[in-house]
Structure formats: structure tokens, C-alpha cells
Amino acid sequence: MGIRKKVSDRMINEFIRLYLDKKWSISEIANYFGLHHETVRYHLKKRNIGLRRYNESRVIRNGLKLNLEPSESLSYILGVIEGDGCVTKNKNSGHYYTNLNAIDKDFVDEFERHLRNIGFTKIQRSTVKYENEGRKNQYVVRAYSKYFYDWYWNLDKYKSYIKMFKSNHDYMAMFLKGMFDSEGCVEIIYSKRRNPKSAFIHISNTNEKLIDLCCKFLESLDIQYRLELKKRKNDNKKDVWKIFIKPHSFNDFREKIGTSIKRKYDKMYIACSMKRVNYLTDKERTEIIKLYNEGYNINQIRKKIGRDFNTVKRCLQKESII
């Protein structure tokens, strides 16, 4: 007979930690310590640890296949969920799933790609076709996971996103891309001769806290914007917050954030290509004033910041410095 391995209190505490916090199975714990699985089960029950049922264990096993560590794909998924997507439970079937319905197939394809990137495998695609000619078909992607459902609804929004992304600009940009794909719009205003004369790039939402979060991320990415509140006259509808990207930041927005939707990208390209007054950024205005106060003349300043003479002069005049 082999010598029975002694189980210390320290080992039992580790059993409990691995079982409850790390979601290890009893068999995994037993193999790790070189014990029989019934030994681990006995000590967990003795400490009044509620053992998981088969269905709970299966959910955890499937969920552990998901990579929920911060990543570009997870950031994009969360941005989409905060916009057009949802994480919900079907009361009739009892299924838990993450869902997106959209008229743009390329948007739904991109969402599915990122879902697969973080480990979703049980994914269903479908198309909703309408007989009404004026209504566009809806493309649907649905990814099933109770583990993700529980994880998502236990987030402390939007504090969790700030902690998750920290100072990572790529994660912030991908979250904003998901939001823009969902809630963003590019408007081109044409003249009577069908020449583009003005453009707007904006993100809309009724959730003020979510809009504040988007603004923080835009500031971190050094993208200029202005905020507008549209009051709804109908009492049943919420007021809408709109983030308008300033024209001189259109190119930065396209390069740093962009969109996965071709029809939006094509309009964004037009907006970025339009000739417009090349406004100074806040950073440039501050630099002009700083250099002037340090004794540089207008000609020297324009060479340093790469702007023309009149632009620098107008800035100083507007600030009542000259």
C-alpha cells in the first residue's frame, strides 16, 4: 500500500481558493496536488463549501475558453454592446447570449470576427428579410455564453472600462470604433451642384455617463470635439447627447478610430478630403501664445509650428495680445 498523503490546513485553504476564486474543478485540484478527487471533495464539503452542479461546472468550463483579459477585440465588443448590441437572457428558452442586429453586413461580420478572437465558438448567424421594400434587411449575429453574461452584468460600469483600458490608447480607440459603428454617423451636406460643402461626424446616445466616457477617451487620443444636448419634446423619449468631432480632427478620427462599415468610411473619406478653413487646435493656440511671450516674432512662430503668417497673426489678435 502507498503512503496516504497528509492534507494540511494550508492545502485545504488552497483547495477552497482554487475552487471558488479560480473556478478549478475538483479533478484539476486533485491532479495538481497528487490526491484522489474524493479526498478534495471530502475536505471541501467538510468546510461547508457548496459544490457546483454539473450544469454550473459546464458553464464555467465553456466560459474559461473565453479570453476576457483586456484586448483590442474585447474593447471593440464592449463598444458595440454599449451601442447597438446587447447581452441578454431569453426567458422562454433560458439561453444567455450576446446579440447584434444591423443593416450593414460588414459591421456584423466585424463583430463576429472579434467574438471569435476572444474565444466564442457557439455563434449563430441569420438574416431577417422584410417584405416592405422601404425597409432594409437585418443581419444578425448571436453568440451564446452564460459565463460572458454573468461577467458582463457584474462589471461596475463605467469604472470597469477605465480600469480595463488604463492608459492603452489602442483599447480606447477600439471601444470608440465599436461605439461609432453602432451609434456614429457621417453627414455630408451638398450644394445645388452636388459638391460637398460641409460635413459632420458625430456619435449619439441618451446615456450621459457613456457619452462622458467617450469624451474622456477622445481627449486621451487628442481628438477635438464639441458636445451638444438635443432636447426631446416627447415626454416618453430621452434627451440625446451628441459628440461632434471638430473638422480639424476628422483625419485624426479616421486614422486613430475609423469604422468597419464601408458606407460610413466612404463618407468619412469625403469629409476628410473637403477643403475647409484649417482651424488651429487648442494645443497650437497655446504654443503660439507661449512662443510670442518668450519673444519670438510672428514669422519665427509660423516656421516653428508650420502655419502661415496670417493664421498666427489672427490667433494673437483674437487673444488681444497684439
Any overview of this molecule?
- The structure is a single chain.
- The chain is an alpha+beta fold.
- The chain contains 15 helices and 8 strands.
- The strands form 2 sheets. It has a 4-stranded antiparallel sheet with strand order 1-2-4-3. A 4-stranded antiparallel sheet has the order 5-6-8-7.
- The radius of gyration is 27 Å and the shape is extended.
- The mean pLDDT is 88.
Spell out the key features of this protein.
322 residues, four-stranded antiparallel β-sheet, alpha+beta, 15 helices
Q: How large a portion of the residues is in β-strands, by DSSP E?
A: 15-25%
Order of helices and strands: HHHHHEEHEEHHHEEHEEHHHHH
Number of helices: 15
Largest sheet: 4 strands, antiparallel
**Unreliable runs, pLDDT <50, ≥5 residues?**
none
What share of residues is helical?
Answer: 40-55%
Structural class of the helices, strands and pairings?
A: alpha+beta
Arithmetic mean pLDDT: 88
Report the radius of gyration as a whole number of Å. Answer: 27 Å
Overall 3D geometry?
extended
Q: What is the first-to-last residue Cα distance?
A: 97 Å
Biggest β-sheet: strands ordered side by side in the sheet: 1-2-4-3
Overall strand count: 8
